[in-house]
Amino acid sequence: MKTAPPCLDTNQAYREQAQILMQKMGVAFSPENRRFVISAQIYLMLAGLGLVVDGSLLSDGASRPAFLHLFTLGFMLFMIYGLGAHMLPRFTGNPLAENRWSSLQMGLAHSGVLAYASGYFAGWPMLALGGAILAWMALLIFSVRVWPVLWPR
């Protein structure tokens, strides 16, 4: 197996350093924030299906709450998660710790939004309630993660 010339290894190291520096400066998203923003775009498209199914997001159909919550909980909240975690550390100068809590937050938020919307579609209020609880737990985790950024000790 042929090894790469030393100049290519150096270039790769510079590229990695540049990516890390761009993330610290706010030019590039961290992988977790990118996943939140991409998820928000997917929920926006799913909420847009409400226009096709009901003809309007403000119709009186039984699926109206599901589509509205795909927009509000799915799109808007995921954008807040992604952009808030990206921008707040740049405004305050305090770093946001990236750890397993963000993965747990994302899992709870996805489970909550999908269970909430599915509960409304299927007519199962307990599933919608369970989804709401999961979504609130994700919001609590986000608040705990962002608190030290806003009010450091």
Question: Explain this structure to me?
Answer:
The protein has 153 residues and is mainly α. Helix content is 80%, strand content 0%. The chain has helices at residues 6-25, 31-54, 64-92, 100-122, 125-150. The model has no long low-confidence stretch (mean pLDDT 84).
List its traits.
single chain; about 150 residues; mainly alpha; 5 helices
Whole-number mean pLDDT:
84
Q: Tell me the β content.
A: under 5%
Number of helices: 5
What is the subunit organization of this protein?
Answer: single chain
Low-pLDDT runs: none
Helix content: over 70%
Instruction: Characterize the main sheet.
Output: none
Task: Tell me the total number of β-strands.
Answer: 0
Tell me the span between the first and last alpha carbons.
53 Å
The helix/strand series, from N terminus to C terminus, equals: HHHHH
Structural class: mainly alpha
Coarse shape: elongated
Radius of gyration: 20 Å
List the helices and strands and how they pair.
Blueprint: H1 6-25, H2 31-54, H3 64-92, H4 100-122, H5 125-150
Overview in brief:
The protein is mostly helical.
